[in-house]
Amino acid sequence: MTTFxxxxxxxxxxxxxxxxxxxxxxxxxxxxxxxSRLNETIHGFVQKWGSVWxxxxxxxxxxxxxxxxxxxxDLAGDAVLxxxxxxxxxxxxxDDLAVGDRVVTCxxxxxxxxxxxxxxxxxxxxxxxxxxxxxxxxxxxxxLRSEGLFDPARKKRLPFLPHCIGLIxxxxxxxxxxxxxxxxxxxPQVHFRTVHAAVQGDRCVPDVLAAVARLDADPExxxxxxxxxxxxxxxxxxxxxxxxxxxVAAASTPVVSAIGHENDHPLLDDVADLRASTPTDAxxxxxxxxxxxxxxxxxxxxxxTSRLTARLGHDIAHLEQLRSRPVLRAPESLLIGRTHxxxxxxxxxxxxxxxxxxxxxxxxxxxxxxxxxxxxASTLARGYAIAHLADGTIVRDAAQAPxxxxxxxxxxxxxxxxxSEGEVPESGTSEAGTKL
Length: 436
Hints:
Elements: H1 35-47, E1 52-64, E2 67-73, E3 80-85, H2 87-90, E4 102-112, E5 117-127, H3 131-146, E6 165-169, H4 174-186, E7 192-196, H5 204-216, E8 223-228, H6 242-250, E9 255-259, H7 267-271, E10 274-275, H8 279-286, H9 290-323, H10 326-329, H11 331-374, H12 376-381, E11 386-389, E12 406-410, E13 415-419
Parallel strand pairs: 3-5, 6-7, 6-8, 8-9, 9-10
Antiparallel strand pairs: 1-2, 1-4, 2-3, 4-5, 11-12, 12-13
């Protein structure tokens, strides 16, 4: 540590000395040094210090222009140091750092001469004790992604209004109170089935695995929330365990991961069906807001009423328009007109049929007269007779009926049997007819 010794020589008050030329070691009340000279001296002294590795917890992380201005707190006490992390150095970091992280950092002291500010400039920073573990987690993350466990297509949809919510969290924890309070504010009738488990340490993975299996086997549980408050990456390692991740992926009940804060990102977040940034966010995303749902129902009811009113008004107007048409206002007028047309067509049909019948009747009479004139019966009616032999041969020649030949004579009315007496000479023919 530097000690400033004032000049106590007897003649120091006898001559004034310019402040810029007085070294801090030679300053006095009569010959003080300047602020710039003092700050430059301190700056030069601090620049001789080397870099040092220090472990602590990030309590402040403010990003301005790509650079970070933060504070690091001692893990065991209350001591705090300020640090600056330039953007060019930060770009080389692979760790995702945030407030609350336990880190190991390489710092070099720096004193800003113009402003008199003392801070430490960071050249390296990483999570404390997590380097190898984080590397293993990244390899596991890549393996699970290649197996499709992070695929959005395999994630299950959450029920709109779960009847029973399974909650896995620490006993008497803030996370449990946050989930219950926010869920009940949104839907007072919400029902929970809570299983307490260790959320850090050696018992974390076995307890959470048993709780997941228990709630997944419960048929009344519609969705499972795994919740805990924030913490450093070391305390959240249990929620990146491969056994737990695969058990959640195989669960038939939808699982919501609500681990830590927004910046925390265990593997459980990637495989869960829904990732909530905080336990409070999980309650809001799993349980619908009763006020919002009532407002939505009222809005839908109003829209439905408006639509039905408009539709009924349109249909009533259309019906009135149809009723105002003449054919519907007096439908009998259409029938009367059609009746007159039908009567005319029926009368015309009867006339056509009558004329056709008369023509055909006369035609039939003519044919009947012609047929009668040509018919043998007509000839017989005039007194003629037809004689035919026993074999049915009609006698047309006297030579066909020699003496003694038997014949049948057909008359106009009936028939008689006759025996030929031979041919009669022409002179013996009487006016009455031929002598048989």
